[in-house]
Every structure is written in C-alpha cells, then in structure tokens.
Amino acid sequence: MNNDRISNMGKYIINQGEVTTEELSQKFNVSIVTIRRDLKKLEEDNIITKIYGGAKARSDKLKSFEQRENLKKDEKAHIISIAKNFITSGDRIFIDSGTTTENLINDLDNNIHLTIFTNNLSIIKKAASMENVNLFVVGNYYNHTSNSFTYWGSSPTIKDFNIDKAFMCTSGLTIKDGLTNKNPIEQRIKSTICSIVDHIYLLVDDSKIGISSLMTYAKLEDIDTMITNKRPPAEYLDFLRDKDVKLEY
C-alpha cells in the first residue's frame, strides 16, 4: 500500500469536493482496482465517502471556495493578466463561477461599460459596485461550496440573451471528454452558455489538463480560445492546432 499516494489522493478529493474513479486513475496513474482499494482506506480513515463511480469529501473535511481560491495563485494571476485583454468596453460577457474567473473582474477598470452575466456571488458583489455595468444574475439557488447560483425548478432563460463572450472555468480538461464539471446543476448553466455565446474563452491552469470530471459541458474543439499558464502537452498542442483553437499562455 502506497501511503504517500493515498495521502495525496485524500488531499486531492478534499480540494475537488467530488471526483470519479476514472479521474483519480488518470491523476495518479494507477488502475481502477488500485483506486478502489485506496478509496476504501480513505473511507475507513473518515476522509471521504464512497459514492457510485467515485468518492466525495466528508462535509467536515471539504475545502471551502475561499481555501481553494488560494491554490496556484500565481498561475491564476498569469491567466487573468491575459484574459482581461480580451474584454473591451460595450461587451456583453458571461463570467463563469470559479476560483480563476472570480478574480477576472477585479482586474477590470471600474469605469468600463459592460453587460455582465454571472452566477458567482463574489462577481455579483463586485459588478454591483461598478456604475457602468448592467448586471444579470444567472440562477436562483445558492450553493455555498461553489459560491455560485444554480437553477432549481424552472428552466433557465439565459438562452434568450445575446452574449458576445464567455470566460469559462473547468474542473478538468481532456481531449476525449472535453470540458468537465462535477456539479450536475452547474453543468446545466455552463452547457447552455457555451451553446449560445459567440466566443468561448477557457481559463484553465495546468493542473486541470489531463483530468476528467463527472460531466462534460463542452467539447474541447467547441472553445475558441484557451488561456493557460504554461505550454500544454504536445498532444494538446496538436489537437488545438488541428481544430483551429487559439492558444494563449
């Protein structure tokens, strides 16, 4: 039994909140059988709870949105420094809920004229203080763990709006599964946005590349621009080039 791997796996699950066995197998480069054995040990140690197809952190162990925000701060700051250059006055933009995108609005000129759609509470608070911003709140149910609003009950009406640009986050990114998310309710909003927006910007740090989470909300070839903090692996470079996806890092 590899105690270091099990310890790192426990930390990873606490950080992510909920993961699949396939995601863990890819992350730690071991078989599904080994992952299941490791999860059994973590459950015995009261770190996680096994669920169908994966595991989730116990509620008393789960990292908050604020704690996750402090991870890879330099990498996220680099991504934001690039992404903000694609926002111009008069744009109608969607800013996704995530620890990277949340900081995007903090780097914008307070006097910029924008229409902002978002489901992230911190972005809502900041946008509400910007007098030249028209703010649309997406969702009607607040999720404390993700610091975001999701839909509960009635269908979303976001598809009725014309949105120029979407700045999206992802729990994981692979060539096979595309952009993935572990929250089925959030996935609904993300998928809808990507189906209606003119230009999709994906903001993703290198730790998410090669990881697949529970649900796909967009294919990798569906995005227009990928913004990351370092040069991706060769197979991703080839794929992005072949699918005419612009890469910034």
TrEMBL record:
GO MF, one example: DNA binding
Alphabetical list of Gene3D superfamilies matching this protein: Winged helix-like DNA-binding domain superfamily/Winged helix DNA-binding domain (1.10.10.10)
SUPFAM superfamilies in alphabetical order: NagB/RpiA/CoA transferase-like, Winged helix' DNA-binding domain
InterPro entries documented for this protein: Carb_Metab_HTH_regulators (IPR050313), DeoR-like_C (IPR014036), DeoR_HTH (IPR001034), NagB/RpiA_transferase-like (IPR037171), Tscrpt_reg_HTH_DeoR_CS (IPR018356), WH-like_DNA-bd_sf (IPR036388), WH_DNA-bd_sf (IPR036390)
Superkingdom of origin organism: Bacteria
Keyword annotations of the record: DNA-binding, Transcription, Transcription regulation
Domain HTH deoR-type: 2-57
Name of the molecule in the record: HTH-type transcriptional regulator IolR
Source organism of the structure: Anaerococcus tetradius ATCC 35098
Lineage of producing organism: Bacteria, Bacillati, Bacillota, Tissierellia, Tissierellales
